[in-house]
Design goal:
The protein is mostly helical and 452 residues long. It contains 16 helices and no strands. The two termini are 37 Å apart. The N terminus is likely disordered.
Length: 452
Amino acid sequence: MSSPPSEPISQAVADSAIVLATRVWFVVANIGTQSMLAWMLLPGGRGSYAVCFLFGTLFGVIFTIGTDRAAQHFVMTKELSVSQGASAATIIAVTGSTIAMGLGWFLIHTQISFFQKAEISDFELSLLLIPSYILNIFFRLQLSGLRRFVSRAIITVVQTTTNLLLVALFLGFLGFGVTGALWAQVISLSLGTALLVRDLCVHCGFRFIVPRWSHFRPIIHYGARYFVARLGNMVDVQLGVILLGFIATESEIGLFSAAAALSLRTLIFSESIEISMLPRIASDPDRRNEIVRRSLRYSSLFTGLTLVLLVLISAPLVRILLSPGFLPAVPMIWILAPGILFQGWAMILMGHFRVINRPGFTSWSIWTGLMTNGLLFFALYPAIGVSAAAWSMSLGFAARTLMLLASYQRTSGAGLLQTFWPRREDIAFIRTALGRIYVRLSTIGRARHERK
């Protein structure tokens, strides 16, 4: 008997909810970490940590040319085996990270103003973040593409909890400051990567092989086309910190980075939907547009409600979580909120275009947003100071999303009303998904009980 038409979509919603449950803990742990960083480092130290962390995570992305998503795509679509795709990705990640660390060491010891915003020793330590972060991303994406959502969820919980505990130990008890916060990231990312590799080996048959050029070629070709989008997407989110790193004080950097970090956590719904949506639309092209439109509506509902709540309680929340010294960041949270709603839609649409092998749409939209962000920052900063970073980021997100929506309408033939207008069937799908979640969690619980 064939599956009912709603099967793939309701299953996708169930997977989204499982991913979301993990993301909720990720947000809780991340907010706890951000709170400790704010209270213990204060705005100045928080700014120094922000530029070091940005350098250690962004620099590796530059030298891996978008191949993280490319490797996921070809394994997910079964054009490469897990061993072929993941082995090629590992070699690319290690090679790119090594080049990035060598060039990074040279840049750290120059007189560039960005590298004057923290101790040289902390920037040197941030070089260890490059391979830790890149390898973690590569293998995490492989698990998502293979629908290992529960395993990825457990590993995410372990990784984020480890980071939270290490920050408490290194900052709260040992007083290591920025250095301790960076070591916590390096250790937790490395642990997470080890667990990801173990799961791929045990459950997905991954074995490291020496790939042929025929395995590298499609990954590099796809990655080169997607690289502009991959780099632009990461730079766009961090552009405010990058630009402030050259012209602002450590305290201003700390205020903006704290506001952005807190606001961006509301994207957990869109991230969860996008993670579970990709394998579905890759394997079910007939229902691809239906899944995408429903994902956009769910993103609108859940992200919108969360943003409204955040804006309403932002002042007491910042006072409690980040300390009164961060209250000047509250207006920036209000400014960022509408842009983040747009960004939630963009994440869904970018996932769609990656799966249908049209990364060019994603690249153009991201760089449209990035140029909007950068130009507005320089236009507004002389007049309004650090708030310019929030305004330019929010409007850059909006510009990117509008371009993606226009491209999606043109390629799918779906109008805005057809895409975003809520439907009665949406409630039915949510109910079905909740039932699936309950059954799956009950099955997992019974299995663990029987093993004990």
